[in-house]
Amino acid sequence: MKTDLFNSAISQRTKIRFLYNLESVIIEPYYLSISSGGNKVIYGRVNNTNEIRMFEYGKIFNIKVLNNKKFSPIIPILPIYN
Predict the structure, then answer these.
(1) Residue 73 in 3-state DSSP?
(2) pTM for the full model?
(3) Average pLDDT along the chain
(4) Which domain range does residue 20 map to?
């Protein structure tokens, strides 16, 4: 379920909002991966910053795709990684 939401947001370039460690976060999602510890993660640019952060799936709750919030990536989104 999370992967489907994230893939949709990445391909359509829509921002997402979720709770991460009980903190509300809005990101521009870039790509999904597996961390060195073997956990699923999503990388994205935190809203109103230039910071690209990694977020672990297991700590993400209450995901909402913000369909009215489109973005242009500051790093290229390569189809091979989606």
Answers:
(1) coil
(2) 0.80
(3) 87
(4) 2-81
